[in-house]
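Recall that a protein's primary structure is simply its ordered list of amino acids. Everything else, from secondary elements to tertiary packing, is in principle encoded there. The following example makes that idea concrete.
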Amino acid sequence: MKKFFSFLILLSILSCETDGYTSSEEVLTEEQFIAVYQDVLVLENYYQTKYGLPSAYKKELEKSCKEVFKKHHFTKEQFDKSFDFYAHNPEKMIKINEQVIADLNKKKI
């Protein structure tokens, strides 16, 4: 499980592009982002394990993510802008990913 989360995190860092760069004024705080990001990663892991191919679970994952954003009182757009911002700040993204892994390991997910 640790390897899977590490892979997802590495993939998320490497897949970022420079288009649509967001200023720090439009992003969630690190704490807010970590809370939402953890839930999204757990959902992605669940659907990946259950269905395997992203095309088989894309719609269900999107619905579930909407509920996560609703739970945390943020929109998908806020999450996407925040993800983009942190992905363009590798030191911060590494710190966030380390915190996500540590938190999920404490929860034994």
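The helical segments are 2-14, 30-51, 54-72, 76-87, 90-107. DSSP finds five helices and no strands in the chain.
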